[in-house]
Amino acid sequence: MAQATLKGNPITLVGPTLKAGDKAPDFTVNKNLLETASLSDYAGKVKLISVVPSLDTGVCDAQTRRFNEEAAKLGDNVVILTISNDLPFAQSRWCGAAGIDKVITLSDYKNHSFGKNYGVLIQELHLLMRSIFVIDADDNIQYVEYLSEMTDHPNYEAAVEAVKKLV
């Protein structure tokens, strides 16, 4: 279990601390209120998973916009998923208003499968901790960044470089 804080206050993350070399755990998240997605839906592609607490916050907004820009440069063999516990219709509204069209937003609101399996579910808030996972086409984790402070930005350059090494 990774150690984390929100504005300096300790928070509890539920689940394992994954590392490069681990097999990526499966998960079930929502594309919309009725349709789900899992890791296998993106089989054969390099996956950059950008995890955010809520799209309606400044750092999460900037993080998602940055990866949306990067997605256009990474090619068709790469998929960028942004996962949060925002409701699917809130994610769709936000993407429409922000012009986000290359990142796929997925919601872990229903059963927290992603959060629990990837060690990013915040017990006290039922939100996901900001983190980045780069998973190769064979579903092996190649890069992980668990942020220790929720309000910090991830290392965008390192995550993008990890993806570029796989394509």
Low-confidence stretches: none
Q: Please report the distance between the alpha carbons of the first and last residues.
A: 31 Å
User: Per DSSP, what share of the residues sits in E-state strands of 2 or more residues?
Assistant: 25-35%
* Average residue pLDDT: 96
Shape type: globular
GO molecular function: peroxidase activity
Domain Thioredoxin: 18-167
Enzyme class: oxidoreductase
Catalytic activity: a hydroperoxide + [thioredoxin]-dithiol = an alcohol + [thioredoxin]-disulfide + H2O
Task: Set out the fold topology.
Blueprint: E1 3-6, E2 9-14, E3 28-30, E4 36-38, E5 46-51, H1 58-74, E6 78-84, H2 88-98, E7 104-107, H3 113-118, E8 121-122, E9 127-128, E10 131-135, E11 141-146, H4 156-164
Parallel strand pairs: 5-6, 6-7
Antiparallel strand pairs: 1-2, 2-8, 3-4, 5-10, 8-9, 10-11
Helix pairs in contact: 1-4
Short description:
The protein has 167 residues and is an alpha+beta fold. It is 26% helix and 29% strand.
How would you describe what is shown here?
The chain is an alpha+beta fold and 167 residues long. It has four helices and eleven strands, in the order E-E-E-E-E-H-E-H-E-H-E-E-E-E-H. The strands form three sheets. A five-stranded mixed sheet has the order 7-6-5-10-11. The chain has a four-stranded antiparallel sheet with strand order 1-2-8-9. Strand 10 (131-135) and strand 11 form a beta hairpin. Helix 1 (58-74) runs parallel beside helix 4. The termini are far apart.
Task: Describe this protein with a few key phrases.
alpha+beta, 29% strand, 167 residues, single chain, 11 strands, 5-stranded mixed β-sheet, 4-stranded antiparallel β-sheet
